[in-house]
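tokens incoming
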């Protein structure tokens, strides 16, 4: 019998005795196998915690140097993603943390074998996972939970599974602030172009928009609120639909800066002037807002701080700390530039 077997068997036997299960069952739980009943798994995990057990992989990762965290985007070709990434890398540099970066399509992310993915993370000693604007299910996240890998989701399209941490911005308040600004300028025919119907952040911005209208006694007009994607193509097609209405809006609140860029493109194609003929507000407050012509009024999200907050949360969870809240919500700020003005005269 090898020295390694002599050392490991008594530990597994002790855990098994405390949990009232067999040693092979303990081994399955330690290695993240999913063929163990939930109640049995809970007893084994409780016994492991009581005995302070560390697997060989955990011991190696604890002494192997800087902590590593995996960061996955479902697209990194936007200013939004780049600013979130900058915040994460800034915090990682200050904390001496290594970031393993990858980008996958939403379809590939959905179809990935999350059991194998989570097990690879354990074997490579990675401390946690940050997912950016990714749509994930509870079943997928459970693969990481079973292996005690902390996961933080930034601005998820769908509400995160119970027990997982998310980081976002005050989307409802931002939507309300954008619409209130347009109302204060004298607009009543205000439209909203948002992201996917199922996107939690877009729904919150829509509700903020509707709350502002209702608060001022302005009815929500049929055909004025459209859902699509957070991209320029939808901004252009959505603007075309709105401008073709018998009574088109005098202002558009776009649910992202990328959507707003598409609106600007379509307005130029139709010789519609911004802001003289139609006012426009975006959402995100990326560097693009300063580079458009006219410069874009936008609700700024603290994107870099959202990245920092996500990595900070993952590292705290990896140390066994308890967070005050499972949802971190950072304040937005309306930044007024050149794309909004009083509505045109009759």
């Amino acid at each position: 019998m090898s020295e390694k077997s002599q050392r490991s068997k008594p530990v597994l036997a002790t855990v098994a005795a405390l949990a009232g299960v067999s040693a092979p069952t303990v081994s399955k739980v330690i290695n993240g196998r999913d063929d163990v009943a939930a109640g049995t798994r809970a007893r084994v995990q409780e016994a492991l915690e009581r005995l302070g057990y560390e697997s060989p992989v955990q011991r190696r990762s604890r002494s192997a140097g800087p902590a590593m965290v995996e960061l996955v985007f479902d697209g990194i070709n936007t200013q939004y993603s780049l600013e979130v990434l900058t915040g994460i890398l800034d915090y990682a540099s200050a904390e001496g943390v290594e970031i393993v970066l990858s980008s996958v399509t939403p379809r590939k992310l959905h179809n990935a074998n999350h059991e194998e993915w989570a097990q690879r993370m354990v074997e490579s000693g990675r401390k946690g996972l940050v997912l950016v604007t990714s749509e994930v299910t509870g079943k997928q996240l459970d693969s990481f939970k079973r292996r005690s890998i902390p996961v933080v989701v930034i601005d998820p399209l769908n509400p995160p599974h119970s027990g997982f941490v998310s980081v976002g911005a005050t989307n409802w308040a931002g939507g309300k602030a954008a619409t209130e600004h347009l109302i204060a300028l004298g607009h009543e025919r205000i439209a909203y172009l948002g992201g996917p119907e199922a996107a939690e952040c877009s729904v919150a911005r829509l509700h903020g928009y509707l709350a502002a209208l209702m608060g001022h006694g302005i009815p929500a007009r049929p055909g004025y609120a459209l859902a699509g994607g957070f991209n320029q193509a939808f901004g252009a097609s959505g603007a075309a639909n709105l401008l073709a209405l018998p009574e088109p809006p005098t202002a558009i609140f776009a649910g992202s800066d990328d959507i707003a860029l598409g609106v600007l493109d379509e307005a130029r194609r139709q010789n519609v002037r911004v802001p003289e003929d139609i006012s426009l507000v975006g959402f995100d407050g990326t560097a693009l807002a300063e580079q458009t012509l006219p410069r874009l009024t936008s609700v700024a999200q603290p994107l870099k701080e959202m990245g920092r907050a996500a990595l900070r949360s993952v590292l705290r969870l990896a140390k066994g700390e308890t967070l005050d809240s499972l949802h971190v919500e950072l304040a937005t700020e309306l930044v007024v530039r050149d794309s909004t003005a009083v509505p045109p005269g009759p």
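note: Residues 187 and 343 are 6 Å apart (CA to CA).
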